[in-house]
Prior knowledge:
By secondary structure, the protein is an alpha/beta fold. Helix content is 19%, strand content 23%. The chain folds into two domains: 5-66, no CATH class; 78-186, 3-Layer(aba) Sandwich (Rossmann fold). The termini are far apart. Pfam families: DRMBL.
Amino acid sequence: QKEDIEVTLLPAGHCPGSVMFLFEGENGTVLYTGDFRLAKGEAARMELLHSGSRVKDIQSVYLDTTFCDPKFYHIPSREECLSGILELVRSWTSLTRYHVVWLNCKAAYGYEYLFINLSEELGIKVHVNKLDMFRNMPEILCHITTDRHTQIHACRHPRDDDCFRGNRLPCGMTCQNGTPLHIISIKPSTMWFGERMK
């Protein structure tokens, strides 16, 4: 039997270009999420999930998430996380220009929100290895740099942890103008919240 199916791509909010798939056919409607990160109320504002004034009747949801586990009883909002990181970065970088933050980001994409907001709030560009991976995201280009002489780094190295232990950033920086750097590492990761007890 043949069946016509309409497939709609919905923003997943995970990393740039990430989508959820909504399959609609004669036998019903299915939502496949893939990895997603939506704030409360965000799905309610997605017009493509609605038919007229009501939410579409979805028979099945394939929920693809690492965090569908009771141990992740609370994952803070993106805004709460940004606020905490911003406070820490501001207090550290304001000590001296030799106080540097390394954002230990394990994935290549997905931290753009953090980079843009830190840069806007603190007026400090974020050092990355290459700009070409962001060439299709013009809104971030004024917030990142390949100049290592900045106080916020998100540069990467295959053995990042080894580099950091030697008080050295992954890009190789250890000092500026002969003055040693004071480095703290921030690992933006949701996994941490699963390791905490209620």
